[in-house]
Amino acid sequence: MLLTFVILGICYCLSVVAQKGPSLTVTVNDKSSVIPGFIYVAVNTVPAAGPYVFDLNGTTVFNGAGKLGSGTFHDFHVCTYQKVARLCLWKGTTAQGYGSGQALILDNQFKIIKTLPASDYHELKIVQALDAEGQYSDTALQTVYTPVRRDLSDFGVPYEDDQGWVVDCHLRAIDPVTDRIIFDWSSLDHVPLNETYVLPTGAINGYSKTFAWDYFHMSSITRLGSDYLVSSRHTSTIYLVSGKDGSIVWRLGGKRSDFKLQGFSFDSQHDVRLAPYPGQTDANIFALSLFDNEYNTFVQPPRGLSSGKIIEVNVNTKTARLLHQYDSPSRDIGNPSGDGGSVQQLQKGNVFIGWGSDAQVTEHTADGRLVYAARFGVPGSSASSYRAFKGPYLGPKN
């Protein structure tokens, strides 16, 4: 009997150690300038991967590893669903740079209250939008990646013996209550294959459905009035898509840019969002935030070092210029982020940045001063997180 208890005790201790999860090591914390809040991050490629909440001192407030079963998790953040603050995240499996799974909406006890239709992980946003009756209601924005057959012989892939596969990226807006599709847009219907910078190669060689060529790689969706801003990592382009007929209104960046980029560039970007632009009253002049990777793991070598950027887009003059750039504290050792990344606007003009596969988070004042920096991970493992967020604490404590 005593031996049984000893064995059970050892197993319990091993289980606790196995589920301890990643730590957050804080290196900069200017408490007089940092915006209060908690850090939300879904940590992957480590033991006890899953959704976590840390306080600004690096203490783990919530360890979600194993609480929703096994899988890969992305985009863990505070969202608003039916006018109530909730928790949103994506759970599924990933391969070849995209995912197959479902977005989950959770209450503050980490219980699932809504499971959205199958989707990829690159976007999960619930926004308020005007419905057909002129009332504001929830709309969920999601990405869906679908491999389809195409003749890719112009790109060196034979169209025979079930060869010739390409990924069709979909922007999908749905009613999160009824799952009704409000708007669906296909990259293949509107963007030609030759706009890409990423040719068939390696795990996306186009020779089979499993290794379909990801020529577009939709990395974020956001609303601009009744239209949509779509970010494509593999064309290094931001597209304004008409919410009426799906046509492309304009392109920013890439091979066919309608805008002149004045003194800056971006490459393989993520997380394009509307940003506050104080004092600007012209609707045709607005600011966007984005995470500029300057690196794509399918294209070597890196073009440069990753950074967060705020840019001005002037539709009147068809120009874009850099307003602010936020650099990594590890920039001096040349550490680009090859995947993921996010830029979140906070109060007082502060900006919170998740560095994707470079497993760190930082906060900067509007003028670019670094006021917070922390790195997460597990010794002996290479941690990563698609995005990281800051927000109020809404969940149970461990």
Give a verbal description of the structure:
Helix content is about 5%, strand content about 45%. Mean pLDDT is about 90; it is low at about 1-20. The protein starts with a helix and ends in a 7-residue tail after the last strand. With about 400 residues, the chain is mostly beta strands. It has 2 helices and 26 strands. The protein is globular, with a radius of gyration of 21 Å. It has helices spanning about 1-20, 185-190, and strands at about 25-30, 40-45, 50-55, 60-65, 70-80, 85-95, 100-105, 110-120, 125-130, 135-150, 165-175, 180-185, 220-225, 225-230, 235-240, 250, 260, 270-275, 285-290, 305-315, 320-325, 340-345, 350-355, 360-365, 370-375, 390. A 5-stranded antiparallel beta sheet has the order 1-25-24-23-22, with no helix packed on it.
Instruction: Kindly state the number of beta strands.
Output: 26
CA distance, first residue to last residue: 31 Å
Largest sheet: 5 strands, antiparallel
Structural class: mainly beta
Overall geometric form: globular
Number of helical stretches of at least 4 residues: 2
Mean pLDDT: 91
In the sheet with the most strands, the strands line up as: 1-25-24-23-22
Radius of gyration (Å) = 21 Å
Poorly predicted regions: 1-18
Report the helical percentage: under 10%
| Strand/helix succession | HEEEEEEEEEEEEHEEEEEEEEEEEEEE
Beta-strand content estimate = over 45%
Topology (elements, then pairings):
Blueprint: H1 2-18, E1 23-29, E2 38-43, E3 50-54, E4 60-63, E5 72-81, E6 84-95, E7 98-106, E8 112-119, E9 124-130, E10 136-149, E11 165-174, E12 181-186, H2 187-190, E13 218-224, E14 227-232, E15 237-241, E16 248-252, E17 260-262, E18 270-275, E19 285-292, E20 307-314, E21 319-327, E22 342-345, E23 351-354, E24 360-364, E25 370-377, E26 388-391
Parallel strand pairs: 17-21
Antiparallel strand pairs: 1-25, 2-3, 2-26, 3-4, 5-6, 6-7, 7-8, 9-10, 10-11, 11-12, 13-14, 14-15, 15-16, 18-19, 19-20, 20-21, 22-23, 23-24, 24-25
